[in-house]
Amino acid sequence: MDYTMEQYEASAQMIRERLGDFVPRVAMVLGSGLGYLGDEVENPVFIDYQDIPHFKASTAPGHKGRLVFGELEGQRVAVMQGRMHHYEGYSYEAVSYAVRVLRLLGCDTLIVTNAAGCVNTDWKAGDLMLITDQIKMFSESPLRGENLPRFGVRFPDASHLYTRRLLDLARQTARERDIPLREGVYFYCYGPQYETPAEIRAVRALGGDAVGMSTAPEVIVAGHCGMEVLGLTLLSNMAAGILDQPLSEQEVLDAAEAAREKFSGLVRACLRKM
Known about the structure:
Strand order of the largest sheet: 5-8-7-6-9
Number of domains: 1
CATH superfamily: Nucleoside phosphorylase domain
């Protein structure tokens, strides 16, 4: 175990001192190239990760590395403009540290977004996917080590990490806005290298529809903390071996920019209904 309850509390207390009476309800983790939603928050309070005790830096391209507190679509939000990844050299507990801190601050709902490779050959790059479940079975859990009972039980149920109520809310919202929304399973790989064609074939055989290097650790911790979770994926590129072309991080960032209006509109519309 990397962190104690005292360290989580120290991080939360520093943030409380900056926020005053403001108590966030919805936490949002924004993935590669999707951090622009944080720039749309009203009456924002910005706190850089480097200024928060025990927080790690976010070094991935397209990640600003700061928290934004304020209001968005009538909700009191805490927006992570950038996340931490295991491939940056951080433990899984460090990767998901912020989720527990945001829970201590009052957040009871988590919206996670990411840009991921499309494994399902019936779909195409640029599609949006509602995450209905996830697979993270070939690396250790962020809950490994001593359990902190204040957050949750030793052996938490993971049958419905993605909350049924929020899945239905997202489906209805997408229909109302005439936004095509795929539904599928997010398969976690820790990177930083992109997957090989053989690995993608294995992911498909195991039931994955999209593959990425984030999201799953944070969602496990959010479930442990009793938070409701909504997950949305931008299928930024076709996964390795499907098309005869190399993969690049610039392709991911370009896809995020191209989908900006559609993706932002869906997330904001979901927020209004929460």
